[in-house]
């Protein structure tokens, strides 16, 4: 059996996969040119950052393990007889830490403190506690669940929104996507962990933003398509929500001319809320490969109709 | 009975105290001049930011409720027949949030992200997770306990240091002050929540700092006297610990000429890790006043020999 790893850090995966499948031939590549000789014979593909179109040129392909949580690009190119799995669970810890790094930093005013330091200015900043505030988590998969759990640890009230009642037990109150407006209007901190699907496309638009509190914080670590970006630019200029932290965008890399870069109340990160250490993903991938070889059900199977 | 509140935000306390003691005369002042007429007759004093020397001029004083957690300045002026209480518990939430705001911000690189944003630069920052790292908490009172609890919620291993075995149950491993060197050398993040006492004076000195890991983070939200500041300046220049966040200093306000201001790996805040909203302190103070009036034991009684 031939296994191909297509990723920037392909080499860091190979050893773990060879250990999981000692009988297989495991190859690692990080460019299309390098991949060419292996397209024909590959049965199992581990990939991230790969041009999805090349899947059509892999006739023996049976299973794709995407080395990320978001599969919106690859799911469009998926042949009907190929299984697609995405990483679930492994991203939760690191992404939830990213969310709370910014929630706490923005509530406590640490950026303002740093600016005062530059001026050698001794001035107290009035920070606000998270305790008793309401955290809204849109998307209640493994990442959203971890965000909700940490929210509880900080004494926050949890509201959740998801497509199905799954995850309801994590929340004090549960909403469906059709109730996005009411949901967003009621929370102090709105965290988006939504996959890119037809249903989530532009779900946070001008109307939803206008309904938010003027002291609310919006954080998006899911997919950029969930927010209508030009509406958000306008909303942030109006100060409602008060602040946003965006890790994902309609177009990535975020174009240098985007007005988001220069909004003082918009905090930008370059799609780095997920794990940069491949360690966590590698462990997940190797375990799934063992399941594949022994005929057990795979973890993280994507439903192509839902798109996640 | 005459009650005096001496604080910048005296007015915000008066109503709650009048409610707790409807029979008493409650006065609020925020300067020595305003306080003069009330010194003679005051039995109970609620104070913060007051020159402690004036206690000697209050012959009827029986009880001082300090409206803060640290009482090192006032305890020196305490007459033998006056009870001193400090606020315990109310600061835990906010101070632990301050600690985790910085721990997460520094581990995730949010300041570096903000700097990249200013250049419109799309570059991934390799953040490090807290999970599995070792958190050292020096001082295991109510604040240290809350820091330890949140550390657990983030999946950290907890080491603790305190004068007595009290708080041992919060930690995976417990150390005494005499073991500060070994304790500091073994942790990824060292959080100081120590009171200012003879025993903690300069407990973090050149030798302790030299033993720390070169990727460690040091955070001090207790009292500035715990760290020998000139040793820390040298240590931060050597990059061991890698970073420090200081909310308290040997001299406050931190003098404009202190070299700490300009160290890139030193993050300064102006003694603002505690609650700036008097709400939490007010609730505590009013409850203690009710205890005083009904003859119940007060909460947060300071042992003058220990100094906290």
Strand order of the largest sheet of chain A: 8-7-6-9-10-11-12
Counting H and I runs of at least 4 residues, what is the number of helices of chain A?
A: 10
The largest sheet of chain A is: 7 strands, parallel
What class would the helix/strand composition of chain A place it in? Answer: alpha/beta
- One letter per element, helices H and strands E, the order of chain A comes to EHEHEEHEHHEHEEHEHEHEEH
Name the poorly predicted regions of chain A: none
Helix amount of chain A, in percent?
25-40%
Summarize model confidence as the mean pLDDT of chain A: 95
Rounded to the nearest angstrom, the radius of gyration of chain A is: 21 Å
Work out the oligomeric state of the chains in this entry: homodimer
| Shape designation of chain A | elongated
Helices and strands, with pairings:
Two copies of one chain form a homodimer.
Chain A: E1 2-6, H1 11-20, E2 25-29, H2 32-39, E3 44-47, E4 63-66, H3 72-75, E5 83-85, H4 92-108, H5 110-118, E6 134-138, H6 142-153, E7 157-161, E8 173-175, H7 180-185, E9 189-192, H8 206-210, E10 217-220, H9 229-238, E11 243-246, E12 266-268, H10 279-293
Parallel strand pairs in A: 1-2, 1-3, 3-4, 4-5, 6-7, 6-9, 7-8, 9-10, 10-11, 11-12
């Amino acid at each position: 059996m031939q296994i191909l790893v297509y990723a920037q850090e392909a080499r860091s995966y190979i050893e773990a996969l060879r250990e999981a499948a000692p009988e297989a031939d495991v190859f690692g590549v990080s460019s299309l040119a390098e991949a060419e000789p292996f397209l024909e014979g590959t049965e199992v593909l581990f990939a991230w950052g790969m041009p999805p179109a090349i899947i059509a040129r892999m006739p023996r392909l049976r299973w794709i393990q995407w080395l990320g949580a978001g599969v919106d690009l690859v799911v469009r190119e998926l042949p009907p007889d190929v299984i697609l799995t995405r990483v679930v669970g492994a991203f939760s810890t690191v992404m939830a830490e990213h969310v709370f790094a910014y929630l706490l930093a923005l509530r406590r005013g640490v950026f303002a403190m740093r600016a005062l330091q530059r001026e050698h200015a001794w001035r107290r900043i009035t920070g606000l506690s998270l305790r008793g505030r309401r955290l809204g988590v849109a998307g209640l998969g493994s990442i959203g669940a971890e965000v909700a759990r940490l929210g509880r640890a900080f004494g926050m009230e949890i509201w959740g929104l998801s497509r199905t009642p799954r995850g309801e037990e994590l929340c004090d109150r549960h909403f469906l996507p059709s109730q996005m407006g009411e949901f967003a209007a009621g929370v102090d901190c709105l965290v988006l962990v939504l996959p890119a699907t037809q249903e989530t496309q532009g779900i946070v638009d001008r109307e939803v933003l206008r309904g938010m509190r003027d002291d609310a914080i919006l954080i998006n670590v899911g997919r950029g398509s969930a927010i209508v970006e030009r509406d958000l630019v306008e909303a942030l200029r109006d100060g409602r929500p008060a602040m946003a932290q965006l890790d994902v965008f309609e177009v990535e890399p975020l174009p240098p001319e985007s007005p988001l870069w220069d909004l003082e109340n918009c905090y930008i990160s370059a799609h780095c809320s997920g794990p940069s250490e491949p360690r966590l993903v590698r462990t997940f991938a190797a375990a799934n490969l063992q399941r594949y070889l022994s005929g057990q059900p795979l973890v993280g199977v994507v439903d192509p109709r839902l798109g996640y």
